[in-house]
Design goal:
Blueprint (H helix, E strand, L loop, with lengths): L2 E8 L2 H8 L5 E9 L8 H5 L6 E9 L5 H10 L8 E2 L2 E2 L5 E3 L4 H17 L7 E2 L6 E2 L16 H17 L5 H7 L1
Parallel strand pairs: 6-7
Antiparallel strand pairs: 1-3, 1-6, 2-3, 2-8, 4-5
Helix pairs in contact: 1-5, 3-4
Length: 183
Amino acid sequence: MAESQAILAGGCFWCTEAVFLDVVGVRSVESGYIGGQTVNPTYKQVCGGDTGHAEAIRITFDEAQVSYADLLDIFFATHDPTQLNRQGNDVGTQYRSAIFPLDEEQAEIARAKIAEHNEDHGGRIVTTIEPLTDWYPAEDYHQDYWANEGQRNPYCMAVIPPKLQKLRKSFQNRLKSQAGAAA
């Protein structure tokens, strides 16, 4: 099994985590902070917008089942890459749309995918490719949030189901939930 990682920021990490946890080939998703200057930032500090960090997810995936390019296609389909430093009502640089490539190959794929998806978005994509910096896992209660607290959180109930519907509509053949239904 060729296991790799991808680090993506597409708004609230609770929302992006919920999407990628249902993708076939994704082994794990960890919510965390990247791209800022504060060492060991807290959720409260990052939400304050002063640390420079983005709320992001670190995806561990099996390349034999899902490629990095496939993950980027899902990423672009399940958040709005045309909103600068925001996703919906979440506003601030911590909610920016960003890709943090782990090597030059991922950077090349990211550049190609931004260009490809930019055509579909009228040239308005603001997703950045940012240098890899220290990764800080978010506090424990943020991990697997949708399966735990999220389904009792009104914000999550408003934001996550539409993202999951987009995922199910556009990527049926990539879903863990569909794999079990087909068996």
